[in-house]
Amino acid sequence: MTAIGRTSRLKISRHTQAGYYLDGGKLGDIFLSRKNSPENCELGDELEVFVLHHSDGSLIATTKTPLGQVGDVLPLKVSQINDTGAFLDWGLDKELLLPYAEHMGEITAGKTVLVKIYLDKGYRIVASMKLDEFIEDTAPHLTRGQSFTVTVANKTELGYKAVIENQYWGLLYDSDLVRPIRKGETLTAYVKKIRDDGRIDLSIQPVLTVSSTDIASNIISQLEANDGFLDVGDKSPPEKIYAQFGVSKKIFKQTTGRLYKQQRITFEDGGIRLVKS
Fold first, then answer.
1. Class of domain 73-132
2. Which residue, among 40, 42, 37, has the nearest Cα to 15 in the 3D structure?
3. What is the pLDDT of residues 242-259, one digit of tens each?
4. What is the rounded CA–CA span in Å between residue 277 and residue 275?
């Protein structure tokens, strides 16, 4: 099915000196210029094309692939601003419009902004920074352990909001991060928890299937193999803890806290020490 703002596979129905006309089904004929078409095209050939509007309002196609399509959430750089709005570089000759009504905060040329690409009421392909109007807060149908491609959004007091598969909000907690992340970054994340209200907690490391007992055993085993002391503790960076034990800093602190209460370890400056039995 042909869709505006999406890549479609369309058949050449006729040609002229200027280019080719593709069968767009219910959208009618869609023009593809010779400049934007492969060499040696023939009637009946099927081409992978992106469908968009020409400046005169007619539908055209290009074999160029944009950085994003309708429905995508992604970071794009502002190339210019005029009375109409901001224009974003998305890899096509015709830049993507970010209308003034869809701005959030100060926008300047050269700045990268996180946007949702969508079709407005006039079926124009435009962008919006107002993600909350497009992204759903809840996704109760997801299951713990599922992996998804997410796009990191705004920083919050607890961590970072992230867009799951361009559709749902999730939250990456600072305490679960094993490395620094940045707004606009795309990464793989895992459903850590579905809260009672349907909101999603995420983790950038696979959700552990091992028990807390297994994690504690690993810590004790490593202590025993290193003369009873490890130079890793509550103040160690998350990356070091993850490299040593394969768990987040939050899980490490919870486990060492239990081991301390059980009088199996003690905390020292710069690390943890095994209590001799």
1. mainly beta
2. 42
3. 888 877 788 888 899 999
4. 6
Report the percentage of the chain scoring pLDDT > 70.
98
User: Which residue from 125, 131, 122 is spatially nearest to 6, judged by alpha carbons?
Assistant: 125
| Residues 181/160, Cβ–Cβ less than 8 Å | yes
Q: Residue 161, exposed/middle/buried by CB under 10 A (0-12, 13-18, 19+)?
A: buried
Residue pair 46/32 in contact by the 8 Å Cβ criterion: no
Query: Please, are residues 155 and 183 in contact by the beta-carbon 8 Å criterion?
Result: yes
Q: Which of 172, 177, 213, 175 is nearest to 191 (CA)?
A: 172
- Is 52 in contact with 5 (CB distance < 8 Å)? yes
For residue 215, give the H/E element and its range: helix 212-225
CATH 1.10.10.10 residue ranges of the chain are: 212-274
CATH no. of 212-274: 1.10.10.10
Distance of CA 45 to the CA centre of its chain: 35
| Top-tier CATH class for 147-203 | mainly beta
Residue with tokens 């997801």: 142
Q: Residues spanned by CATH 2.40.50.140 within the chain? A: 7-62, 73-132, 147-203
Domain 7-62 fold: OB fold (Dihydrolipoamide Acetyltransferase, E2P) (2.40.50)
Location of structure tokens 């299951």: 143
pLDDT score, position 269? 87
Name the pTM for this structure.
0.74
User: At 215, which amino acid appears?
Assistant: I
Residue with tokens 């096509």: 92
Mean pLDDT of the chain: 91
